[in-house]
User: What shape does this take?
Amino acid sequence: ATLAIAEYEGPVYLRFGRPSWPIFTPADQKFEIGKAWKMIDGKDVTIFATGHMVWEANVAEAMLREEGISAEVINIHTIKPLDEEAILESVKKTGCAVSAEEHQINGGLGDAIAQTLARNNPAPLEYVGVNDSFGESG
Assistant: This one.
């Protein structure tokens, strides 16, 4: 992300968190601003995740697989610009989605996905995020 930002023309916001997570991104994975990364192919539900929730989405996918549910996991590392093509392509296949973020439900990744789906391909969407409250830190 840092290397992509260095080459990007325009304003940028990069968010870092404190939790420690396993490294799950291959060393040769190219980071492209505005391009989502499909991590796991699935057919029953799409899990769109950002930030720390990407690791949790991978954990959820493994749990769902044990239940016979095939989940597609997509890392939406760039919320603006949003990779609407990746969202629409995946939900067209799975028919429903979950957004997972460590952010307010209102105005975050889930709302951006909801707007994309509402304009192009209405489909059920479940939010996993903070429900209209202040975050605590420090």
Summary: The beta strands are 37-40, 45-49, 71-75, 97-104, 125-130. The radius of gyration is 15 Å. Helices lie at 2-7, 53-66, 84-94, 109-120.
